[in-house]
Amino acid sequence: MGQRSIGIGMVGYKFMGKAHSHAYRDLPFYFDSDPYPVMRAVAGRNADSVAEAAQRMGWSGYETDWRRLLERDDIDVIDICTPNVNHAEIAIAAAEAGKHILCEKPLAMNVREARRVLEAARKAGIIHMICHNYRFAPAVQLAKKLIEEGKLGRIYHIRATYLQDWLADPMSPYSWRMSKEVSGSGTHGDLASHSIDLARFLVGEIRSVSGLMPTFVKERPTSDGTTMQVDVDDASLFMAKFACGAVGTFEATRYARGNRNGNRFEINGERGSLRWDMEKMNQLEVYFSDDPADLQGFRTISCTENSHPYGDKYWPAGHIIGYEHTFINLMHEFSQGIARGSNPEPNFEDGLRNQLVLEAVEESNASGRWIDVEEYE
Q: For the chain, what percentages of helix, strand and coil (3-state, to nearest 5) are there?
């Protein structure tokens, strides 16, 4: 019996659309995925632009209305790579059409929308996944394995930062990411959502938060010479208490000069510590307190051995992989979820849990008090 295929329809074709398209193209090269993806059509509003994107990125065709994707029998999966404001509408319609769904983060604009998306997916019985790709760096997967094996013992701390600098210049132009109506939040939903997902994956559920969400530059120039008001956060900082008793600090910003994509965490436990930095994504720094005293210190593990998570799918040891491979690994898990008929993680339930934490931080920023995440459940 030959391999089965799944027809993919993707909505949106810019940064994330490019990353997802690359992953679909390369997935069968590295993984014996059954079913394997067939890139049927990409949807976008501008006919000339989406036609060019379809040809460049390897899609068989294109649509100028995403609803046409839902009507096609040759499309089994809807991949949502649009601005945040469109996620819920497209996901709910796709679920009602019986399509499996891969959605970029955050799942929705707010908790209310996220609940509706999850309910629609559950009702339809489709497979769903949210694209927190950083989980699928081999070093992060190894960190998860070490924690689950008890190598760190009880977890005390996580320190998570996601630092970028592309808005540090106050004259950087206005974009949709600076509009609450389109994005839901600024740095908070864009960057902090990744840190929240990694923390939940590695440490567990967040129970309460206390946060700040400042806006440093209140308006930005536009291409037509006018200015637009910025009504989202430029930075997100919060403390967190976890269900397991651990505590955490989180910082996300687009104003950290010299940081292009500084997605980092450090986890401290009773018997050791872990450090990871996306800009050195193949390396995991580990420290174990039971090492001999004269050999103690952080060691750097290059997570490229065949024995490391996903290590046997790529190159010989020491030959590093890149950002794009985190998406390939994620797409593999998604396709295997479809084959099994069970939702891989992170799925829309994780997306809702993430949204609950995001919104609790927003409430803390507005009220100036600690907020229990359960208040939003």
A: 40, 25, 35
